[in-house]
Amino acid sequence: MAQRITVIGTGYVGLVSAVGLADFGNYVTGVDIDTAKVERLSAGDTVIFEHGLAEYQRRNLDAGRLRFTTDIRGAINRSDIVFIAVGTPDREDGSADLSFLERALEDIAAGADGFTVVVTKSTVPVGTNRWIGEELRRRRPEAELSVVSNPEFLREGRAIHDFFHPDRLVIGYETERPEGARARERMEDVYRALYLIETPMVWCNLETAELIKYASNAFLATKITFINQMANLAEACGADIHAVAKTMGMDGRISSKFLHPGPGYGGSCFPKDTKAIANTGSRHGVTMSVIEEVIAANEQQKARIADKVERLTGGVSGKNVAVLGLAFKSETDDVRESPAITVVERLLSWGARVSVHDPQALANFRGIFEDRVSYHESEFAAIEGADCLVILTEWNEYRNLDLARARELMAGDALVDGRNALDPEQAREVGFRYIGVGR
Ligand code: UDX
Q: What residue owns the CA closest to ligand 1's atom 19?
């Protein structure tokens, strides 16, 4: 049976979830406090750069299964299920800031009518869902409700694909309470479309679901950090990290994914989630030394790129550096925790003049660096007159960069390829002094 759903928060996860849940045949209302955003979304406009999202959004708006509003309590009042997808930014000490979540709970406690399932999509510290249940029952003792933890694993740039083709669905529920079984039935209805295509469904308690999410992201961050350190070693001893990684990946126990060396991981999840799980460990008095080391090593990896520029240019002070790629990875305009921020910050502090290009992320980068660097709509405009060229995001247009033209436009011959996006032989043929990562 189609469910009436409210999704609180129309950020990345909230918007993709609202659109996806509507496409499964549910009646979905996306709510946000931002009036202008709600108007744009209702008109079918896009607010984030994400493949396929606009098409699904319009299709479900037209079908009458999707709408957006600022009337949070009204929407909750008419819903069988409320998904919480508000932001949980990290505080200075790595712990999560739950103030948006608390506000959502206030609205749920005030608006819920009849048996309501409260589903957390936001990534929240282990133990939070249990606390959500206690909080809601304290605020509204007579309310009939049950709490579910349904973490999201979608990747930016591939979020729509990931929503419709997840490797698994994780649904933590209140296994020890009678309402838990009722909540589970509703969740089965919500995701019937995925159940029919035999997506593995993992049913577990709340804490297990929460920890699955953190453990998965922390493991991937560890895998990347591992290959980054191996790449640094390969560089020092003359091995080719790509051959090493590819061959390691042939072992089914290891798998070839997430073994691409680079300038360190960034984005809205890995940096935040690794810090949060380390913080959870220390709260429980459990050593999380592997994760702590990953966090520190990733910072060093970002800094290493700037060190390479410094070395290759014989001191970057007073020189021009062109940075191509500002987003934390390709196919997104997101610069949160992007290695480009650390690298450019260091280069500037050493007295370099920096010009930048990115096919999508210029505006977001400008929000951070303002007039401290120069921004260019074309990569060649950024490259012109540079002493050193640095690649930090693996956009396809950089992989196919006209290296001969780049070399001609530049004043110098230094090239630091932070993503191993280019062919070192080709770069050397046209006269570059090339350094990649681990080769
Ligand atoms: C990630 C998780 O993949 C997703 O499941 C979770 O829900 C949110 O966090 P995302 O942040 O969108 O998704 O990006 P992802 O593609 O996983 O890449 C994360 C970072 O690792 C990027 O900076 C990327 O460039 C880097 N990376 C990834 C590497 O450096 N090497 C790799 O082999 C893979």
A: 265
Rounded distance from Cα 371 to ligand 1 centre (Å): 29
As its CATH architecture, domain 207-439 has 3-Layer(aba) Sandwich (3.40)
Where, residue-wise, is CATH 3.40.50.720 in the chain? Answer: 4-204, 207-439
* Residue 419 structure tokens: 């993503």
Q: How many CB atoms lie within 10 A of CB 385?
A: 14
Q: How many helices (DSSP H) and strands (DSSP E) are in the chain?
A: 19, 14
Identify the three-state secondary structure at position 331: coil
Contact 116/79 with Cβ under 8 angstroms? yes
- DSSP letter for each residue of 13-79: HHHHHHHHHHHTT-EEEEE-S-HHHHHHHHTT--SS--TTHHHHHHHHHHTTSEEEES-HHHHHHT-
DSSP string, 209-222: HHHHHHHHHHHHHH
Cα dihedral value 254, 259, 264, 268, nearest 10: -70
CATH 3.60.15.10 is the classification of domain 4-204: no
Q: Is 204 a catalytic residue?
A: no
Q: What is the mean pLDDT of each run of 10 residues along the chain (439 residues)?
A: 96 96 97 97 92 96 98 97 93 85 97 97 94 97 96 94 97 97 96 93 98 98 98 97 98 97 96 94 96 98 98 98 98 95 98 98 98 98 98 97 98 98 98 97
> Residues near ligand 1 with C-beta < 6 Å?
152-156, 217, 224, 258-260, 262, 265-267, 269-270, 328-329
The helix/strand/coil state of 117 is strand
> Do residues 155 and 162 touch, judged by C-beta distance below 8 A?
yes
pTM of the model: 0.94
SS3 call for 96:
strand
